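ingest -> validate -> predict -> emit
validate: passed (alphabet ok, no gaps, 199 aa)
predict: started
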Amino acid sequence: MLRIARESGEVAAPEPVDLAARVRELRKARGWTLEQAARQAGLARSTLSKIENSQMSPTWEALKKLAEGLGISVPQLFTPRPRAQVTARMTVTRAHEGTRQATPTYEHELLAGALTQKQMLPYRARIRARRLEEFGGWVRHDGEEFLYVLTGIVRLHTEFYEPADLKRGDSAYYDASMGHNLISLSEEDATVLWVTSLV
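emit:
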């Protein structure tokens, strides 16, 4: 029947959505635990657990609370996540061929510069600064940031945390709208890989 439908130009009906899997997917996409999601929705943790494990069929009232807690409409609970469209974009940046930009505190080498409308901004940086006072205040910008130490030792200063000393192979992931500065503790300038989200 499926073969005949395709040949006649008919579109097959979409597969029904597994509500349990869909709720779990939506919760995990937000990085919430069962407790957090249940609290947001005003449901008992045990109730949400049973919904996610197909152990109960939620009432209409429970569905409304769940949707509101997740920040979506009830119909979206039964709408599968759209499949990502393959863009097949790719670019290669050879060693030391990135676009360079120097500042008094950092020397950036922008990677993947040939791609426009990126969702991430990757760059290699040489850390020139040795003292926090060399910055004119906190660096802060939209998005989240991943930092990986390539050489040397750095100290990551942030607005709400104690400074963290990181050596080669160490990494940090943080909210970039939080004030942050990075200094080198090494005799030579430390180098790091930074990846900043743009969405």
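The first strand starts at residue 99 and ends at 102.
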